[in-house]
Amino acid sequence: NDNWSGVVSVEGYLGRNLTATQGVDPQTVLGTEFANNSLPGASDTQVNANKGNPSAYNAGGVTEFDSGTYLAIGLQGNVQANPYIVFYMNSLGRGRITMSYDIIDIDSGSNSAVSPVALQYRVGTTGNFINVPAGFVADATDGPTIGGQITSLNVQLPANTANKANVQVRLITTNGSGPDEWIGVNNVVFSSLAPSAASVEISGRAVTLKGTGISHATVTMTDSFGRTVTAVTNSFGYYHFREVSAGSTVIIEARAKGYTFDTQVVTAFDSISDFDLIATE
After folding, report:
1. Closest Cα to residue 203, out of 161, 249, 252, 155?
2. What spatial distance separates the first Cα and last Cα of the chain, rounded to whole Å?
3. Percentage of the chain with pLDDT > 90?
4. Rounded to whole angstroms, what are the CA distances from 103 to 33, 169, 270?
5. What's the mean pLDDT when you consider all of the chain?
């Protein structure tokens, strides 16, 4: 119980008191229950180990079901728990990170509640997670006394998860409006591609905080050898860089009268068409 030391790069957490009410969309729950949203060591993880029948077990949180009909890591919300599983990844030298997994209704008991599951990620070890809409399951269950529904997903993670030393990916559910069912997670596979020698493109818009395009902004891209290329945004704020070496890390900076932009760093294994530069003031 509460010991993930034998499971490489995976841990489960209770998500204690992350929501104040029932039925909160897990896509909107982006923090953790710990200071600075950091994820601590094994002493703060949570798992009920070596269980067999989800329909006869209602402890909530994260549970290993390793015998019986369903073999899975189960998530069940309750008044305190918004449980989640975290996968720790080193993607250095890799691009186009893809995650495939099965979300399974493993509860054929009398419990019944809408049971959503969200996929989220962050680069680094602190700060909020970022929701991945393509990985969202609005309801992973069939209802009371029915189990076995399988939702299979294959999701390409955002481009900024590539070539990073620390990426955290998590699956999270929340306390439902009703008696929560067990949701199983199984067959999780991460895949990636090595960078190629091909060229890619980076494009996007320079925009205000309200999303209005900023025309005639100067956008500069600098590669790892110090070489720079400059583009000027059009009347709608669009810029475009071609012939970017695939797998290279570049620095992108924007300048426009009356606006300030943060410097951006991106590794482009594939073409990126929505790399927007948002003015901070």
Report:
1. 252
2. 50
3. 74
4. 24, 15, 29
5. 92
